[in-house]
């Protein structure tokens, strides 16, 4: 006879990594943020894996934060590097997509 005792798994809850959005200064789960990365070579890109090395700035997936960040130049300041229009366009696209998914 098989025992039907429910298996108790006492796994400690793993804390999800959190980061701060440069727009609203709110703390979010890393996976809910977009990472803008400055590579050691000084190139700016959007890091979808969150694993690339370099200096990162995080933006939550909200259009308000995106606009604020773009207007205030906070990404540029926190990465100490010029952010091209292409990067902003790509960010905007990603955020739009994420906002659409929320609805
Ligand atoms: Zn934000």
Write the layout of secondary structure elements.
Blueprint: E1 18-20, E2 27-29, E3 33-38, E4 44-47, E5 55-60, H1 63-72, H2 74-79, H3 85-102
Antiparallel strand pairs: 1-2, 3-4, 3-5
Top CATH class? Alpha Beta
Total number of β-strand segments? 5
Which descriptor suits the 3D outline?
Answer: elongated
Ligands bound here? Answer: zinc ion
Second rung of CATH, namely the architecture: 2-Layer Sandwich
Percentage of residues in strands: 15-25%
Question: Looking at this structure, what is the CATH superfamily?
Answer: YlxR-like
H and E order: EEEEEHHH
What is the percent of helical residues?
Answer: 25-40%
Give the number of domains: 1
- N-to-C CA distance: 50 Å
CATH topology: Hypothetical Cytosolic Protein, Chain: A
Provide the spatial order of strands within the biggest beta sheet.
4-3-5
- The Cα radius of gyration reads 18 Å
Structural class by helix and strand composition = alpha+beta
Oligomerization category of the chains in this entry: single chain
Provide an overview of this structure.
With 103 residues, the protein is α+β, with helices and mostly antiparallel strands. It has a single domain, classed as 2-Layer Sandwich (Hypothetical Cytosolic Protein, Chain: A), CATH 3.30.1230. The chain contains 3 helices and 5 strands, in the order βββββααα. A 3-stranded antiparallel β-sheet has the order 4-3-5. A two-stranded antiparallel sheet has the order 1-2. Strand 1 and strand 2 (27-29) form a beta hairpin. It is elongated and about 70 Å long. The mean pLDDT is 90. Bound molecules: zinc ion. The site of zinc ion has 7 residues, from loops.
């Amino acid at each position: 006879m098989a025992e039907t005792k429910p298996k108790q798994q006492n796994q400690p809850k793993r804390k999800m990594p959190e980061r701060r959005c440069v727009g609203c200064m709110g703390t979010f789960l890393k996976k809910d943020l977009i990472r803008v990365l400055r590579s050691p070579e000084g190139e700016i890109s959007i890091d979808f894996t969150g694993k690339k090395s370099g200096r990162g700035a995080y933006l939550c997936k909200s259009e308000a934060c995106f606009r604020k960040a773009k207007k205030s130049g906070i990404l540029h300041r926190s990465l100490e590097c010029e952010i091209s229009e292409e990067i902003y366009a790509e960010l905007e696209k990603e955020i739009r997509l994420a906002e659409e998914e929320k609805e």
